[in-house]
Specification:
Shape: globular
Largest sheet: 2 strands, antiparallel
Number of strands: 2
Distance between the termini: 37 Å
Strand order of the largest sheet: 1-2
Number of helices: 5
Structural class: alpha+beta
Radius of gyration: 15 Å
Length: about 110
């Protein structure tokens, strides 16, 4: 957070920069014995959809407070959003490792 602040990066953009460093996110649901493989683009969409339910939580609002502290963005497939449930929007990601295998040329 300090490096981002010193570089003049708005606090609200720091989570997007971290997301851009990863090719895939794997959400592991131990309770349901399933994994959800999301691309970088899908991860950004999931986080933005979660803003509907979690956007006003203090640990989801990025500011350069002193002392600096790490915050989080929610990635809940069961979050409440208007319209189609999130889980249905990402159904092709459930237990689908093909994008990773293709990325690895396997």
């Amino acid at each position: 957070m300090e490096l981002a602040r010193n570089a003049g990066i708005p606090a609200k953009n720091t989570w997007k920069l971290k997301t851009a460093m990863v090719d895939f996110f794997i959400l592991d649901s131990i309770f349901y014995d399933e994994m959800w493989v999301l691309s970088q683009e899908q991860t950004l969409k999931l986080i933005e959809l979660n803003e509907h339910q979690y956007g006003l939580r203090p640990d989801n609002i990025f500011n350069y407070n002193d002392p600096l502290k790490g915050l989080q963005k929610e990635m809940n497939l069961e979050a409440k959003v208007p319209g189609e449930p999130i889980m249905e929007q990402f159904s092709e990601c459930r237990n689908n490792f093909l994008p990773i295998l293709q990325f690895l040329n396997m």
